[in-house]
Write a structure and sequence with these properties.
Helices cover 28% and strands 22% of the residues. It contains 14 helices and 19 strands. The protein has an eight-stranded mixed sheet. Helix 4 packs parallel to helix 5 and helix 8 packs antiparallel against helix 9. The N and C termini lie far apart (45 Å).
Length: 495
């Protein structure tokens, strides 16, 4: 038995005003054939789960390719077509017995509001209808029901922060192998109630999401059911499939069972829609509370500048407020390629004046700061623990650490890097536990790494293209392609 493994993952934010091009994928991961195995084979990622399951079962994997880029604006047509063409050409040549495909589920291109579905459709057309395909999706996928036309089994992560990616890939591989050995193709059903889940309410360790996921695991035990996925969706994409979904995989000829289970879980989700809310602080309130908090470090969560949701990562609103209120012992990370270049040129110990931020005026204006270069670094490190995103090899590009007075430290990097790993700081010789306040440009994903060291966590209602409550910032989110009415944008939505 020969099973092809491939992956193309991108979370596309249609409100950031930028594009994700080929260079972004090269900076992330663009591996072809055998190249993907040393990069992804041992990662806590679905690709690692794919390969482990196949090797354990004595099945030969056919590595096709892996394309991954940091979340950002929509993917350009040229790199999307390149990946599609290369996947399809290689699959036609190898004619595998089955395909394991890792997708994000929220990839958008100028032509395709669900680029994942388009990629899947092209692969199905290339290999024909007889080869089974099992797909993994991110918890933040925007899943159109038609995706089930092209995939035999669809399984999504069930944790946020995403720490079960490896298990998700392993499960998909087991489903595919069982299908091939039994010569019975599973069926998949997708149900979408008319709602999206605000990003902070998607955390799976907090109610009501934790309760809904317990129900999903119970429903998974029904006779004939193989997998149940509650998919939270990605609210920062103006696409027809935006919103939550329930995806159920059942045994062959059990489509009615799959539909019944999907409807039951979707109804439970709908009934909890008014509880899907997490309060946030205003910027001045958050800084004032952080300065007075007895339990440190205090994490100020800059939700509106969530790099893992596609933002630039150089918003200055929180940093400016911290300095304005005279905060001490702060640590912040900003994307600032030009400032890094200046720091590297000056060298360690040099005094430096830099201007940072300003990419998106919604997230603050450029800020001029004076400091001393403490460290310059290549920005690379290895993460060995399960963390959101599942990556093992990390690279934030050339990086500089500046002391800017009052025990405040600024980390400047050249590649936008979500705070998914403490290695981003410890690789620079910084101990985040010694900081009084840490600005975290994220929503929930950072918690897998940062929560164990946190004394206090304060989500902040910062503006921007990943704001915590999009319905509160209509000037930032001009939705025109999503289905309406959609809760909570439309309180009168019914289902």
């Amino acid at each position: 038995m020969r099973i092809a493994v491939a992956g193309c993952l991108h979370e596309s934010n249609t409100f950031v005003g930028t594009w994700t091009n080929r260079r972004c994928f090269i900076e992330g991961s663009l591996c072809w054939g055998e190249e993907l195995i040393p990069v992804w084979g041992q990662a806590h990622h679905e690709m690692g789960g794919f390969l482990t399951a196949l090797l354990q079962e004595g099945v030969d994997p056919i590595p096709i390719g892996m394309a991954w880029a940091t979340p950002g604006g929509p993917v350009t047509d040229d790199i999307f077509d390149e990946v599609c063409d290369r996947f399809c050409t290689t699959l036609r040549r190898h004619q595998p017995d089955g395909i394991l495909l890792a997708l994000h589920g929220a990839m958008v291109t100028p032509q395709f509001p669900s680029a994942d579905t388009e990629l899947l459709a092209r692969i199905r057309a290339a290999v024909g209808g007889d080869i089974p395909i099992a797909v993994t999706l991110d918890f933040h996928a925007n899943v159109p029901p038609e995706m089930a036309r092209y995939a035999d089994a669809i399984v999504a992560y069930q944790t946020y922060p995403h720490v079960d990616q490896w298990q998700c890939g392993y499960k998909a591989a087991q489903l595919l192998l069982h299908s091939l050995r039994q010569n019975r193709r599973p069926v998949t059903v997708v149900i979408k109630p008319p709602l999206f889940i605000p990003i902070l309410a998607q955390e799976t360790q907090q109610a009501p999401m934790s309760e809904l996921l317990r129900l999903a695991r119970q429903l998974e035990q029904r006779p004939g059911v193989l997998a149940v996925s509650l998919v939270a969706g990605f609210p920062y994409a103006d696409v027809p499939a935006m919103g939550a979904a329930v995806v159920v995989v059942a045994q062959s000829e059990q489509q009615a069972v799959a539909a019944e289970v999907a409807e039951e879980l979707a109804a439970a989700l709908w009934s909890e829609r008014q509880r899907l809310y997490v309060p946030t602080c205003t910027i001045p309130e958050a800084v004032q509370q952080a300065c007075a908090a007895p339990n440190t470090p205090v994490l100020l969560v800059d939700v509106g500048d969530n790099i893992g949701g596609g933002t630039a990562g150089d918003g200055t609103r929180l940093l400016e407020e911290l300095l304005s209120q005279g905060a001490k012992g702060c640590l912040a990370i900003l994307w600032a390629p030009e400032a890094v270049a200046a720091a590297c040129q000056k060298g360690v110990g040099a005094s430096l004046t830099v201007t940072v931020g300003g990419t998106d005026p919604r997230q603050g204006w450029p800020l001029t700061l004076h400091g001393v270069v403490r460290t310059v670094h290549d920005g690379r490190w290895i993460e060995t623990e399960p963390r959101h995103g599942g990556r093992r090899f990390h690279d934030q590009g050339p990086t500089a650490v500046l002391d800017i007075g009052n025990d405040n430290v600024l980390v400047l990097n050249t590649l936008r890097t979500p705070p998914f790993s403490l290695g981003q700081l410890t690789s620079l010789g910084l101990d985040p536990r010694q900081s009084r306040i840490i600005v975290v440009k994220a929503a929930v994903a950072y918690k897998a790494a940062y929560a164990p060291i946190a004394g206090t966590i304060l989500p902040v209602d910062t503006p921007g293209p990943t704001a915590a409550q999009p319905h509160r910032w209509p000037e930032h989110f001009g939705y025109s392609r999503i289905p309406r009415p959609l809760y909570p944008l439309d309180g009168q939505a019914v289902w």
